[in-house]
Structures are given as C-alpha cells and as structure tokens.
Amino acid sequence: MTDEEQSSADGLADRRGMNVHVYQPAEDSGLLAQAAVEYPVSGTVLEVGTGSGWVSQQVQEKTDARVVGTDINPHACRQARERGVEAARANLLTPFRDGSLDAVLFNPPYLPTDPDNEWDDWMEHALSGGKSGRELIDPFLDDVGRVLAPDGVVLLLVSSLTGFDAVVKRAESQGFTVETAVQESYPFETLTVLALSE
Ligand SMILES: C[S@@+](CC[C@H](N)C(=O)[O-])C[C@H]1O[C@@H](n2cnc3c(N)ncnc32)[C@H](O)[C@@H]1O
C-alpha cells in the first residue's frame, strides 16, 4: 500500500469509527486501570504503550496523579491526545530521565508469536510479544528501575500465556519485590497486574 492509499484508508476507518491501527480498551486495559486507581498511584505517572489512551484517562480522572502516555505507534499517540492525555511517541522508556517517575504502568504486547506468522502492521506492535511473548517485557524490566523515583512502583500486566514465572523471575533478578495487585481468570488466560517495588 502506498502512503497515499494508507492515509485514505486511515481516513475511511476513522470516519466509520473503526480503529484498525490502535488497540482499543479490553479486559487487560480494564484490569490495569483498576490496579492503578485502587493502588492508588500518585505524583508523575507514565503509561508506556498507552494505545487509545483509555487507561491513562481513567487514571487521570480517578486519581490525583499527573499522567503522561507514550506509544511507539503515532496513531495511538493521536488518539490518546484526543482523549485529553498528554502523549508522546517513544520506544519504551528511552526518553525518560533517571529517577523521574513515581509510577510506571504497562499493558505490553504479550502474545507469543511464531516469527513466520508475524504480520507487519501496528496491530502486531500492539499484540505480539515475539517468540517468547516477552520480547518487550524483558527490556522494559531491565530498564524500568532506572526511571523510578525512590518508593516508586511499576504496575505491569502479565498474561498466563506469556510465562508468568519467567516474568516474576526477571523482575526479581532486577531487584524488585513482586506482589499481585489484581488477578482475573478468563476462559483462555489468567491476567495479573504485578506491583513491582524496590
Ligand atoms: C496491548 S496494547 C495496550 C494499549 C493500552 N495501554 C491498553 O491497555 O488498552 C500495547 C501497546 O504498546 C504499544 N507498544 C508496542 N511496542 C512499544 C514500544 N517499543 N514502545 C512503546 N509502546 C509500544 C503498542 O503500540 C500498543 O499500543
């Protein structure tokens, strides 16, 4: 598809209310928002991979936190801004200064995906966690301690499809204490929001 064709497809999808490029709120989004509001997070809060911006909007409206959202997908940043969320395009935590965030929220792309079945579009970025399901989660866990302020917290959504024990082990190896904030079981997976603190 040429850029021009892509742009008119975007316009048509937008006019019909379809969101072909941006992950829309689902059970996992709801669980992450619930955990952040119940915790509750406060101060300066980053939502990595904000998608439609719905989670950030919930946190903004239901806590006293100042919330910033980032996403690798420019369409997502635009949708989040339309919801009133301050959003910027970024890869994981790259632009953030050491010790600058009181809480970091992340509902990552987590589905284990055979490299032969990868599809090269924005929905792949939203859903695919690569072969292990943890190809975004691992570098996130390796860097997130750097950006946390003292007493900061990470709320990370983990699916049973992703290898729950491997995620907990990686977080512990980075010096985090790991607790379950909320957990919900569905027919095909159990979703957990982990609270990581130092
Ligand atoms: C499962 S969706 C979650 C969207 C939203 N937070 C929610 O809960 O409804 C994962 C999001 O992460 C974004 N993402 C993927 N890779 C990323 C990266 N390297 N840096 C930042 N965001 C990324 C995707 O574009 C997508 O919007």
UniProtKB/TrEMBL annotation:
Pfam families: Methyltransf_25 (PF13649). The keyword Phosphoprotein does not apply. One of its GO terms (molecular function) is protein methyltransferase activity. Gene3D superfamilies: Vaccinia Virus protein VP39. GO terms for biological process: methylation. CDD domains: AdoMet_MTases. It comes from the Archaea. SUPFAM superfamilies: S-adenosyl-L-methionine-dependent methyltransferases. Keywords: Methyltransferase, S-adenosyl-L-methionine, Transferase. InterPro entries: DNA_methylase_N6_adenine_CS, Euk-Arch_PrmC-MTase, Methyltransf_25, PrmC-related, SAM-dependent_MTases_sf. Residues 45-111 form the Methyltransferase domain. Belongs to the eukaryotic/archaeal PrmC-related family. This is Release factor glutamine methyltransferase.
